[in-house]
């Protein structure tokens, strides 16, 4: 995998995501703490478990496809979740021909930066995956923006692979809105029947391989700490890394 400074990111990409590494990580954290109020990603919030969920299933695997801003952080969170056997960064919501970083970054392809999570339903349920997704992996009250990243490619979305997953996701969003446990209504969309395309190799395991990268330090490492703090029974210290697919 290329190191961050060796990657030729598209010129159209929002500069804030890639200029962050030019400052030392400690300096970035200091500027953030002096300036803005803590973000959802910095604090996290343990939300109630879904009232409707799939039953445990032994000897099987299941898949969830979720989009919550930059896929580096979402992938990084789920690589630290017990019961997850694989988390792959990629693109969902658009076609195969434009499922490439340079195209998706324009925001014009219909894709969202997404993560395909393969998990053991005997160890963790789809509902618990959604609970972690809403609690620590991203801010579900923001639709087309997460942290410094803005555009439809950073939207909050669930891509269910079955009618049962769609039912659980819809019920959970309704549950959270009814309970008013968030400061604003859930903005996450449910977009069924969508294909998933793995992202380029240099995007895979980005958080695990670049923990001192400025963007990761500010926007994503707090998510890992929140996972550890809010879901100690689901947290594992050693991440499961993505298989080579592309």
TrEMBL record:
One Pfam family in the UniProt entry: PMSR
Family membership: Belongs to the MsrA Met sulfoxide reductase family.
UniProt xrefs under InterPro entries: Met_Sox_Rdtase_MsrA_dom, Met_Sox_Rdtase_MsrA_sf
Statement: the UniProt record of this protein carries the keyword Oxidoreductase: yes
UniProt name for this protein: Peptide methionine sulfoxide reductase MsrA
GO molecular function list: L-methionine:thioredoxin-disulfide S-oxidoreductase activity; peptide-methionine (S)-S-oxide reductase activity
Originating species: Methylocella silvestris (strain DSM 15510 / CIP 108128 / LMG 27833 / NCIMB 13906 / BL2)
General function of this protein: Has an important function as a repair enzyme for proteins that have been inactivated by oxidation. Catalyzes the reversible oxidation-reduction of methionine sulfoxide in proteins to methionine.
Keywords, in A-Z order: Oxidoreductase
Top-rank EC class of the record's enzyme: oxidoreductase
Reaction catalysis annotation: [thioredoxin]-disulfide + L-methionine + H2O = L-methionine (S)-S-oxide + [thioredoxin]-dithiol; L-methionyl-[protein] + [thioredoxin]-disulfide + H2O = L-methionyl-(S)-S-oxide-[protein] + [thioredoxin]-dithiol
The protein's Enzyme Commission number: 1.8.4.11
Keyword Membrane: no
Domain Peptide methionine sulphoxide reductase MsrA positions: 63-213
Active site: 70
């Amino acid at each position: 995998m290329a190191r961050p400074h060796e990657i030729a990111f598209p010129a159209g990409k929002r500069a804030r995501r890639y200029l962050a590494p030019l400052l030392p990580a400690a300096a970035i954290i200091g500027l953030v703490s002096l300036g803005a109020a803590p973000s959802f990603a910095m604090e996290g919030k343990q939300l109630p478990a879904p009232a409707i969920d799939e039953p445990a299933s032994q000897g099987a695997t299941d898949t969830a496809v979720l989009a919550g801003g930059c896929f580096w952080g979402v992938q990084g969170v789920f690589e630290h979740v017990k019961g997850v056997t694989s988390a792959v960064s990629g693109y969902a919501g658009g076609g195969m021909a434009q499922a490439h970083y340079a195209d998706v970054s324009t925001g014009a392809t219909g894709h969202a930066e997404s993560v395909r999570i393969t998990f053991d339903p005997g160890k963790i349920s789809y509902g618990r995956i959604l609970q972690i997704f809403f609690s620590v992996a991203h801010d579900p009250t923001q639709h087309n923006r997460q942290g410094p990243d803005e555009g439809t490619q950073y939207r909050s979305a669930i891509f269910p692979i079955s009618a049962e997953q769609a039912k659980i996701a819809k019920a959970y969003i309704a549950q959270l809105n009814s309970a008013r446990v968030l400061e604003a209504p859930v903005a996450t969309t449910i977009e069924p029947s969508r294909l998933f395309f793995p992202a380029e190799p240099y995007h895979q395991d980005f958080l695990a391989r670049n923990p001192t990268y400025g963007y990761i330090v500010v926007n994503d490492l707090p998510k890992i700490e929140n996972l550890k703090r809010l879901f100690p029974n689901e947290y594992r210290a050693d991440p499961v890394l993505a298989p080579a697919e592309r």
